[in-house]
Design a protein that fits this description.
By secondary structure, the protein is of the alpha/beta class. It contains seven helices and seven strands. It has a seven-stranded parallel β-sheet, sandwiched between helices.
Length: about 260
């Protein structure tokens, strides 16, 4: 009989008994700001975290910091064979995967006329194809684990467009649809799939923006990587009736302009 997403043995009883104890989680882009925050938090909840990234030195340093709760694994998410080998190695050494966080991402700045085809394709290859390859490669392992959770890190640019980052916006909008399709396909196997849409988060990607960039939001500040990590943990451990869902973290930006309209004034 098919399992319903979020039911034992994965989400409810297991989570309440020990959060992420004895679970294996792969975090792509795990050596970056948001990925590292996610890795630290999942490890603190008992998971064994695989830091999958092309940045070997940073990944190894983070794995050492997490002392026994993590291991570093070099992975270019855009490569199909790399994913196959990575999942096989993780299963061989650690057991089946229960959590996949597709966080790896790149951005290219410039208008459509300024951007090269090569640059456009690289953004799509990493941000969209990488997530697709990851979900496809990990799905059998999630079944062997008895179910699990996939969290795709999209972006506010996947909810509303911005000029000058067309490839990035296209990849993140497409990731929304891919998330929902995967949620429908994997639900019978007890696998939930959700997306997170961060807005202005303080990372190297937003290093060129000063604090005034976020001043027009209802919450007039940059978010922190740790806040995104807590949302990811919430989806994994507590949002057990959510799949195909979108979790927006934008300081209230999409709610509308923070202007009080009063014709009497």
């Amino acid at each position: 009989m098919a399992r319903e997403a979020g039911t034992p043995e994965w989400s409810q009883e297991a989570v309440l008994a020990g959060r992420l104890s004895e679970r294996v989680a792969i975090v792509t882009g795990g050596a970056g700001a948001i990925g590292a925050a996610v890795a630290r938090l999942l490890a603190s909840e008992g998971a064994t975290v695989v830091i999958a990234d092309v940045r070997d030195a940073e990944g190894a340093e983070l794995a050492a910091e997490l002392s026994g709760r993590a291991r570093n694994l070099r992975l270019d998410v855009s490569e199909e064979e790399g994913w196959r080998q990575a999942v096989a190695e993780v299963e061989r050494e650690l057991g089946p995967v229960s959590v996949l966080v597709n966080n790896a991402g790149v951005i290219a700045w410039g208008t459509m006329e300024e951007q090269s085809l090569e640059s456009f394709r690289r953004v799509i290859d990493v941000n969209l194809q990488g997530a697709w390859l990851g979900m496809r490669a990990v799905a059998p392992s999630l079944r062997r684990a008895g179910g699990g959770v996939i969290v795709n890190i999209s972006s506010l640019a996947g909810m509303t467009a911005y000029a000058g980052i067309g490839a990035y916006a296209a990849s993140k909008w497409a990731l929304r649809g891919l998330t929902k399709a995967a949620a429908l396909e994997l639900a019978p196997d007890g696998v939930r799939v959700c997306s997170v849409h961060p807005g202005t988060i303080r990372t190297p990607m937003t290093a060129g923006f000063d604090d005034s960039y976020a001043s027009g939001q209802p919450i007039p500040r940059f978010g922190e990587p740790e806040e995104v990590a807590r949302m990811v943990l919430f989806i994994i451990t507590d949002a057990t009736f959510s799949t195909g869902s979108e979790f927006v973290m934008d300081g209230g930006l999409l709610a509308g302009p923070p202007t009080v309209l009063n014709p009497a004034r």
